[in-house]
């Protein structure tokens, strides 16, 4: 959810001219972006200090940005958010480029293997490395992030190009980022999910999910244990993540929205554009969103409110107003000991409000009537000293850039003790008729536009959390329920003809009596607990080519709201139709995308393989049985041709070997076995086993694995890519890396279905 407005016209300019200008701006922006793209991790290489900074590396025609803003300095010096004697360090840190930070993602066991590889291979190679006579600074872990799964570095693009070791490290980071195993994320944005303390059984609402780094972090926390196929639920604005839950009383909420003066180190435009008006305009919206979130939170649930702003108008003022109107239903949690190593300043209890032209106000009563549309009473701290002390605003956390070389940030953690006062109703007597609900024009969740809710307004007590939009949508839902198709999660009925856009194929849940499922259940010996009612496809007619899976909670949301929302993408792909499926006992093969979700339910066609077998399967095309171990052959020889599961189990007695389990989709042919694994995932597993991909060969379209001198795996292992072996898989395919096999494309909002897979003999 991004604050802002959008103009439909530009003065007297015609719509065609406006569109033309917009197109030219977009094209120019893309051209600039291509020229700015580098190979490094550094956040920027401009001049330091107070001097002017050119935007990126282009030349001519662009004004230089000076990292100075007198109004900004005057404002925060007056508010005293920076400890005495630290102002110069604070400003100097804001003028420095922000260091790059990365977070190791995915299942816990896999994340630990990546960490082991980074520390014992790539970082070791950098320890004594010098470039241009200067020692290279080795990346360091964030002291407060658990289990060393987040790191920061000041390595710049220029340095990365000057050393083979650094280039190798950079290639590793790029490949693992493409695989989704490493994520570039600003350090301070990692804090809210950690303080949310989410676990697989929790339900989470992410209310402001753009650009999505915190959302993916929350999803990973839900999926940390690969033995839990269907953890809790996350409702979010982010749909790109391939998990079975991506998306309602909620146990935990994450709210993030701000004007962003804490991002000056990476968004240098803020230096020249900053005024207090941004915060004054956002305060009301932030308070309404936070209030709505508190309404949705269950008793005992935790809500994290965070901004990348240092301004108390967006921070403590919002929290204080929310606490005051909650009348004890909410309280600030003391999280001071939850992230050891994190340096932060306690929230402030006294602040003033300043207009964009520098006029100060210390209390609402002193604000002239002409300013009432810009300044609201909820922007000021409470007057009652006892009430202010009871709020414990000092439990809020403000992160200052110079303390740990980060951006600026604010976090507050609230716990819900009881229902919000306007949600409390007297118990309805048995037999008492239900009175129709009247539309409400103003509520604490949705006060008058442009003004924050006033907790003193009497009508706020009668609000139940529903607004006009909710009532209208419910009425439309009832009216349309007669024509609703069971199990169809398609787009809502269009009231106007759409001139642009693509036709959306609906998601349809598989009926329980569908003849498609029994052969699948029998072929893979699925456990009786398998939730077949959660399977869906994206076609109402013809052959079903892809089968997807969602959690029970998400199924309920999709089915019961099919007329109220448009589903672009959901679920995780678990099966794909074979090209000649009717020739085998089952027409559907397993999809690697969803194998970790599906694996706990599969009881047949599982082959346990050794680490040497995995190397061969990932580096050779259709290796014959004789290439694999005798144990693998004995398991495969009696299986009918078709899709199989290849499972590697780590040996705890051999700590030098790969210590995370691997589950791969494969195909048992007449005399060979092959894998169906995406390119990036394949390269990821090879690296974890100490094998590397030759950059030269990769450019030529083939993947040649060779043993690294200082591998992440056991020392002394021989590479499985031997001389005279069958040709390696092609690197051109973004999915399977195997010739003649179609790409397992994720379901898009439009376009033809992907081609069916051509299987080996």
Automatic annotation (TrEMBL):
Biological-process GO terms, alphabetical: hair follicle maturation; in utero embryonic development; meiotic cell cycle checkpoint signaling; mRNA processing; regulation of mRNA export from nucleus; regulation of stem cell differentiation; spermatid development; tRNA methylation
Keywords: Acetylation, Methyltransferase, Nucleus, RNA-binding, S-adenosyl-L-methionine, Transferase, tRNA processing, tRNA-binding
PROSITE patterns: SAM_MT_RSMB_NOP (PS51686)
Phosphoprotein in keyword set: no
GO MF entries: mRNA (cytidine-5-)-methyltransferase activity; tRNA (cytidine-5-)-methyltransferase activity; tRNA binding
Stretches the record annotates as Disordered: 421-492, 702-761
Residues the record lists as binding S-adenosyl-L-methionine: 208-214
UniProt feature, compositional bias: Low complexity: 745-761
UniProt catalytic activity: cytidine(34) in tRNA precursor + S-adenosyl-L-methionine = 5-methylcytidine(34) in tRNA precursor + S-adenosyl-L-homocysteine + H(+); cytidine(49) in tRNA + S-adenosyl-L-methionine = 5-methylcytidine(49) in tRNA + S-adenosyl-L-homocysteine + H(+); cytidine(48) in tRNA + S-adenosyl-L-methionine = 5-methylcytidine(48) in tRNA + S-adenosyl-L-homocysteine + H(+); a cytidine in mRNA + S-adenosyl-L-methionine = a 5-methylcytidine in mRNA + S-adenosyl-L-homocysteine + H(+)
Signal peptide interval: none
InterPro entries for the chain: MeTrfase_RsmB-F_NOP2_cat (IPR049560), MeTrfase_RsmB-F_NOP2_dom (IPR001678), Pre-PUA_NSUN2 (IPR057285), PUA_NSUN2 (IPR057286), RCMT (IPR023267), RCMT_NCL1 (IPR023270), SAM-dependent_MTases_sf (IPR029063)
Cellular location(s): Nucleus; Secreted, Extracellular exosome
Residue numbers annotated as active site: 308
Keyword check for Acetylation: yes
Stored Pfam families: Methyltr_RsmB-F, Pre-PUA_NSUN2, PUA_NSUN2
Predominant location category: nucleus
EC number, as in UniProt: 2.1.1.203
Broad class of enzyme this protein falls into: transferase
Membrane-spanning ranges: none
Biased composition (Basic and acidic residues): 471-487
Family under the similarity heading: Belongs to the class I-like SAM-binding methyltransferase superfamily. RsmB/NOP family.
Protein name: tRNA (cytosine(34)-C(5))-methyltransferase
Organism of derivation: Ursus maritimus
Underlying gene: NSUN2
């Amino acid at each position: 959810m991004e604050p802002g407005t959008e103009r439909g016209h530009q003065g007297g300019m015609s719509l065609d001219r406006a569109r033309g200008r917009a197109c030219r701006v977009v094209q120019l922006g893309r051209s600039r972006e291509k020229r700015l793209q580098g190979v490094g991790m550094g956040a920027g290489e401009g001049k330091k200090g107070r001097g002017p900074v050119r935007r990126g590396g282009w030349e001519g025609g662009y004004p230089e940005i000076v990292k100075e803003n007198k109004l900004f300095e005057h404002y925060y010096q007056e508010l005293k958010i920076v400890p005495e004697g630290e102002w110069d360090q604070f400003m100097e840190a804001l003028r420095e480029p922000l260091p790059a930070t990365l977070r190791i993602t995915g299942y816990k066991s896999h994340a630990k293997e990546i960490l082991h590889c980074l520390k014992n291979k790539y970082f070791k190679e950098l320890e004594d490395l010098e470039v241009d006579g200067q020692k290279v600074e080795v990346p360091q872990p964030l002291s407060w992030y658990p289990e060393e799964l987040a790191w920061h570095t000041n390595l710049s693009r220029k340095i990365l190009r000057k050393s083979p070791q650094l280039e190798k490290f950079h290639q590793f980071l790029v490949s693992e980022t493409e695989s989704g195993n490493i994520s570039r994320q600003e350090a301070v944005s990692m804090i809210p999910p950690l303080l949310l303390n989410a676990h697989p059984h929790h339900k989470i609402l992410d209310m402001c999910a753009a650009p999505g780094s915190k959302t993916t972090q929350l999803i990973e926390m839900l999926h940390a244990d690969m033995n839990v196929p269907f953890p809790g639920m996350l409702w979010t604005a982010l749909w790109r993540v391939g998990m079975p839950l991506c998306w309602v009383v909620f146990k935990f909420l994450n709210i993030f929205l701000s004007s962003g003066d804490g991002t000056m180190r990476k968004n240098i435009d803020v230096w020249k554009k900053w005024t207090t008006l941004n915060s004054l305009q956002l305060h009301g919206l932030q308070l309404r969103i936070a209030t709505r979130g508190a309404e949705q939170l269950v008793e005992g649930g935790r809500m994290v409110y965070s901004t990348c702003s240092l301004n108390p108008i967006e921070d403590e003022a919002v929290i204080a107003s929310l606490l005051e109107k909650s009348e004890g239903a909410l309280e600030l949690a003391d999280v001071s000991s939850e992230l050891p190593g994190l340096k932060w300043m306690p929230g402030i209890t006294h602040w003033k409000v300043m207009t964009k032209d520098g006029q100060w106000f210390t209390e609402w009563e002193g604000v002239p009537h002409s300013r009432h549309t810009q300044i609201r009473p909820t922007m000021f701290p409470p007057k009652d000293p006892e009430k202010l002390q009871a709020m414990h605003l000092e439990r809020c956390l403000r992160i200052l850039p110079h303390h740990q070389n980060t951006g600026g940030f604010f976090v507050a953690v609230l716990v819900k003790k009881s229902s919000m006062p306007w949600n409390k109703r007297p118990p309805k007597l048995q037999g008492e008729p239900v009175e129709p609900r009247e539309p409400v024009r103003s509520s604490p969740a949705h006060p008058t536009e442009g003004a924050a809710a006033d907790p003193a307004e009497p009508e706020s007590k009668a609000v139940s959390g529903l607004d006009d939009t909710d009532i209208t949508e419910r009425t439309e839902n009832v009216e349309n329920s007669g024509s609703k198709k069971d199990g169809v999660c398609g787009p809502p009925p269009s009231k106007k003809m759409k001139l642009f856009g693509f036709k959306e194929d609906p998601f349809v849940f598989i009926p329980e009596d569908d003849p498609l499922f029994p052969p699948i259940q029998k072929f893979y010996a699925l456990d009786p607990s398998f939730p077949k009612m959660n399977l869906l496809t994206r076609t109402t007619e013809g052959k079903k080519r892809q089968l997807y899976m969602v959690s029970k909670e998400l199924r309920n949301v999709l089915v019961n709201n099919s007329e109220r929302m448009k589903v672009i993408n959901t679920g995780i792909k678990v099966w794909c139709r074979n090209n000649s499926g009717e020739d085998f006992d089952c027409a559907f093969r397993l999809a690697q995308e969803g194998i970790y979700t599906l694996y706990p339910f599969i009881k047949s066609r599982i082959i346990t393989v050794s680490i040497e077998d995995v190397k061969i399967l990932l580096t050779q095309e259709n290796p014959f049985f004789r290439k694999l171990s005798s144990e693998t052959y004995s398991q495969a020889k009696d299986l009918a041709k078709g899709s199989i599961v290849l499972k590697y189990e780590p040996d705890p007695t051999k700590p030098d070997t790969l210590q995370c389990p691997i589950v791969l989709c494969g195909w048992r042919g007449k005399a060979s076995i092959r894998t169906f694994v995406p390119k990036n995932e394949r390269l990821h597993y090879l690296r974890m086993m100490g094998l590397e991909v030759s950059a030269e060969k990769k450019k030529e379209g083939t993947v040649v694995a060779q043993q690294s001198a200082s591998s992440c795996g056991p020392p002394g292992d021989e590479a499985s890519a031997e001389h005279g072996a069958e040709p390696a898989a092609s690197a051109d395919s973004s999915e399977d890396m195997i010739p003649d096999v179609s790409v397992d494309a994720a379901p898009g909002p439009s376009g033809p279905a992907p081609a069916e897979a051509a299987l080996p003999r």
